[in-house]
């Protein structure tokens, strides 16, 4: 079958079409980085990255980012957790101080019993069980149990108690015993009856006596 011969006008149109197709293929091959050179190319696939470049805001919108509300929520949660942690730490410190005070009150009471076994009397102290900070009875308790006016002085009599340095107020003479809150231990005894020993547990007014730590059972 003989191929018909195109007229010069149609030959020129056909040549221009072939040239345009070759130029389009070369352009797509060079400007489509998302496909290997051997992969088939289409005009839509090649134009997709070009459309993305033409709309620079599109990629930014597709990426996730924190909003102001989310940041405020995170900050609020962190604040709540910090408050709970600090509150728990404070409760642990208070519980530890109370446990220490209870142990020290019991140790002082046992030392008074040893003193009574040797001397047939208790150290005499005049603190009232309603007194908050007066250390008069505490100094009497200190000098009788340690046999000296200060922690570092040599005892002149038998020593019935060996306190830790943190338990002794040393900025005066005579020294006296202090509780974990830094207040003097209260002491009251007429020499015959068992002594009353207490810590105010950090309370500075008599209205908080229900929180005191005492050597006698509280009702």
Give me the secondary-structure topology.
Elements: H1 8-31, H2 43-54, H3 56-62, H4 68-119, E1 125-126, H5 136-146, E2 168-169, E3 176-177, E4 186-189, E5 196-199, E6 213-214
Antiparallel strand pairs: 1-4, 2-3, 4-5, 5-6
3D structure, described in words:
The protein has 219 residues and is α+β, with helices and mostly antiparallel strands. The protein has a domain at 91-214. The protein has five helices and six strands; from the N terminus they run H-H-H-H-E-H-E-E-E-E-E. Strands 1-4-5-6 form a four-stranded antiparallel sheet, covered by helices on one side. The termini are far apart. The mean pLDDT is 76.
Q: How far apart are the first and last residues' alpha carbons, in Å?
A: 125 Å
Radius of gyration: 46 Å
Secondary structural class: alpha+beta
For the largest beta-sheet, the strand count, sense and barrel status come to: 4 strands, antiparallel
Provide a short characterization of the protein structure:
The chain is of the alpha+beta class. It has helices at 8-31, 43-54, 56-62, 68-119, 136-146, and strands at 125-126, 168-169, 176-177, 186-189, 196-199, 213-214.
């Amino acid at each position: 079958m003989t191929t018909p011969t195109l007229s010069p006008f149609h030959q020129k149109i056909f040549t221009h079409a072939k040239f345009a197709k070759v130029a389009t293929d070369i352009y797509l091959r060079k400007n489509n980085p998302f496909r290997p050179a051997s992969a088939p190319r289409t005009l839509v696939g090649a134009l997709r990255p070009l459309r993305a470049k033409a709309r620079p805001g599109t990629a930014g919108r597709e990426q996730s980012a924190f909003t102001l509300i989310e940041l405020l929520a995170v900050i609020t949660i962190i604040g709540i957790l910090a408050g709970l942690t600090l509150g728990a730490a404070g409760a642990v410190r208070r519980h530890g101080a109370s446990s220490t005070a209870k142990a020290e009150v019991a140790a002082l009471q046992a030392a008074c019993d040893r003193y009574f076994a040797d001397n047939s009397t208790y150290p005499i102290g005049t603190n009232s069980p309603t007194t908050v900070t007066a250390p008069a009875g505490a100094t009497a308790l200190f000098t009788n149990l340690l046999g000296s006016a200060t922690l570092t002085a040599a005892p002149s009599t038998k020593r019935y108690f060996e306190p830790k340095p943190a338990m002794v107020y040393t900025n005066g003479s005579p020294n006296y015993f202090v509780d974990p809150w830094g207040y003097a231990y209260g002491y009251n005894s007429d020499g015959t009856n068992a002594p009353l020993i207490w810590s105010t547990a950090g309370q500075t007014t008599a209205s908080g006596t229900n929180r005191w730590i005492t050597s006698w059972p509280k009702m």
